[in-house]
Design a protein that fits this description.
Strands 3-4-5-8-9-10-11-12 form an 8-stranded parallel β-barrel, surrounded by 7 helices. A two-stranded antiparallel sheet has the order 1-2. A two-stranded parallel ribbon has the order 6-7. Strand 9, helix 6 and strand 10 form a beta-alpha-beta unit. Helix content is 35%, strand content 15%. The chain is an alpha/beta fold. The structure holds flavin mononucleotide.
């Protein structure tokens, strides 16, 4: 039986255990220059000391128009490399594998940052319309992802993660819900996956065989079978590690097993693990707040690694509570809107409780 403390090696990178920190943007940490700040460094240092095996640094924009807002971390310029070296060093000093998530908002672009562009013309959140990218724009965008990956490598990261879910650009290409193209980037699953798959191939070419390439991919958008076909294309292109989350729109409720101690989003990773077992490591995520949930998933071989977002925002030492019997932790309060989220400067009540406890 696999245990949470067991290591796992992914493309030569040794994760000392089965717990990973999910990418979680710190909305009020960056400046308009997109550079790493002291706040980022301190935040990730605490989490690197907290015991997880891998940290995936938050969604980082590959071009300024692909940012969530005017203050958002980026890797579109060589000047942005330096600050990341400190984040990576703190991870490596604590025997933590460090990767960084690369993203573009696409159709969901913040109008303050740029035009809403994507695979097709669709209605945007603010009632406007996106513009379908030309083939030339697609190639330039892919090159921006690759250039950001090269900068990540220069900063010392062990690898990158493409943000391929949650309705952002790579997801927009992958799903039938927003991709209506009739060229080689639309239609079949192979064609819809092409945008992301070509990025993976080029990163592999530029960053080498030992660079860890992961994608956070859609688990069922519009359905599980299609999402698995998409992921197969990413794997064929050289992806080493699949982290699974949700895409755009409803998830088929039949994918949920109510007898299991995890959510429907988490179950997507479990379904992927069943499919990719023994070939590609798969992680699951969502609403895992109890050490026993992490142990249940790993000990029952339901995923290779468990990805934690809010649990480690609330308490960086949560992984220790999973790994060491009897260790206490401050549980995420599950605020209706996470207080690390985009609309308020963060004031996470669990984090405040932990700091008050001394
Ligand atoms: C404040 C905050 C920021 C987030 N930022 C990102 C991000 O940068 N990239 C991403 O893929 N998901 C992001 N997410 C989603 C989380 O990675 C995770 O999938 C989600 O919170 C569910 O996991 P959890 O219940 O363990 O928090 C964010 C979530 C929160 C609460």
């Amino acid at each position: 039986m696999t245990r949470v403390n067991d290591e796992i090696v992914i493309n030569g990178k040794r994760l000392k255990n089965r717990i990973t920190m999910a990418p979680t943007v710190k909305f009020d940490f960056a400046g308009e220059d997109g550079k790493v700040t002291e706040k980022h460094i301190a935040h990730y240092k605490e989490r690197a000391e907290g015991g997880c095996g891998l940290i995936c640094v938050e969604a980082t924009a590959v071009t300024p128009d692909g940012r969530f807002g005017k203050i958002h971390m980026g890797l579109w310029d060589d000047d942005q490399i330096e600050g990341h070296k400190e984040i990576v060093k703190n991870c490596h000093d604590n025997d933590v594998v460090a990767i960084i998530q690369l993203n573009h908002t696409g159709i969901t672009a913040n109008p303050e940052c740029g035009e809403a562009i994507g695979p097709s013309e669709v209605e945007t959140r603010n009632g406007g319309k996106s513009r379908a990218m030309t083939t030339d724009e697609i190639h330039k965008m892919q090159a921006a992802f690759v250039a950001a990956a090269i900068r990540a490598k220069k900063a010392g990261y062990d690898g990158i993660q493409l943000h391929g879910c949650h309705g952002y650009l790579i997801n927009q290409f992958a799903t039938k819900r927003t991709n209506f193209r009739t060229d080689e980037y639309g239609g079949s699953a192979e064609n819809r996956a092409r945008f992301g798959a070509e990025i993976i191939r080029d990163i592999r070419k530029e960053c080498g065989d030992d660079f860890l390439i992961s994608i956070r991919t859609i688990g069922a958008d519009p359905d599980l079978d299609d999402a698995i076909e998409i992921a197969e294309e990413y794997v064929k292109a050289g992806c080493d590690y699949l982290q699974v989350s949700h895409g755009i729109g409803e998830i088929d409720p039949a994918l949920q097993d109510d007898s299991k101690p995890y959510t429907i989003i988490c179950s997507l990773g479990v379904h992927f693990h069943e499919h990719f077992k023994g070939r590609v490591p798969v992680s699951c995520v969502n609403s895992i707040f109890e050490p026993d949930q992490v142990k249940y998933i790993i000990e029952n071989d339901l995923a290779d690694t468990v990805d934690l977002g809010r649990a480690v925002l609330a308490d960086p030492d949560f992984p220790k509570a999973v790994l060491e019997e009897g260790k206490s932790y401050v549980r995420c309060f599950e605020c209706a809107r996470c207080q690390y989220g985009p609309f308020t400067p963060h004031k996470c009540p669990a984090e405040m409780k932990r700091k008050n406890n001394g």
